[in-house]
Automatic annotation (TrEMBL):
Protein name: Putative adenylate kinase
Catalytic activity annotation: AMP + ATP = 2 ADP; ATP + H2O = ADP + phosphate + H(+)
Binding, ATP: 12, 14-17, 107
Keyword annotations of the record: ATP-binding, Kinase, Nucleotide-binding, Ribosome biogenesis, rRNA processing, Transferase
Family according to the record: Belongs to the adenylate kinase family. AK6 subfamily.
GO BP terms: ribosomal small subunit biogenesis; rRNA processing
Assembly notes: Interacts with uS11. Not a structural component of 40S pre-ribosomes, but transiently interacts with them by binding to uS11.
Domain of life: Archaea
């Protein structure tokens, strides 16, 4: 069986775009977990403060197993993908919070959601969570300033074992400690 590659990261870092490109490049089976959760109604409620649907992670992971193609590379895309223990390799896409802030504003996210996601990116929340579950299978790639093709090339190099990006290699704490200069713009 070919490896199961989980692409995770804070909303807005480029997971969906790169996952589609990677799937094309590898002739892989793309599993978009947000779509899967919607199709299978895998929700256990709604967050009363933030208003988003809460995904039933164990059920989501079971559904992912049902759509795995044993003959293909499987690319599991979504900011919750790292919660599933089936990942043979976890790619955490990272993006400088200043750029993420602009992307999320352009998408029309409300100010609270923008702030929450930008702070999560600055603190490396997805990377830390992924590392807690997957240890050395986690690779962080800083996509700041890189084209989609360049990010794709870096992921391919990781898959080939040519260039590991170990957990902790991306650090935006300085920006965060400086007060996230752009959060109030």
């Amino acid at each position: 069986m070919k490896p199961i590659i989980c692409i995770t990261g804070t909303p807005g870092v480029g997971k969906t775009s790169i996952s589609h490109r990677l799937s094309e490049e590898l002739d892989g089976n793309l599993i978009e977990i947000n779509k899967l959760a919607e199709e299978k109604d895998l929700f256990i409620g709604e967050d009363p403060v933030r208003g988003y649907k809460i995904v039933d992670i164990p059920s989501l992971c079971k559904e992912i197993i049902n759509v795995i193609d044993d003959d293909s590379f499987n690319i599991v895309e979504g900011h919750l993908s790292h919660y599933c223990k089936i990942c043979d390799l976890v790619i955490v896409l990272r993006l400088h919070p200043r750029i993420l802030l602009q992307r999320l504003k352009q998408r029309g996210y409300d100010q609270r959601k923008v702030k929450e996601n930008v702070e999560a990116e600055a603190l490396g929340v997805c990377a830390y969570e992924a590392y807690q579950l997957h240890d050395e299978r986690v690779h962080e790639i800083d996509s700041t300033g890189l084209s989609l093709d360049e990010v794709l090339d870096e992921i391919i190099r990781v898959l080939k074992g040519e260039k590991p990006y170990t957990f902790g290699s991306v650090d935006f704490m300085e920006w965060f400690l400086e007060g996230g200069k752009f959060l109030n713009d």
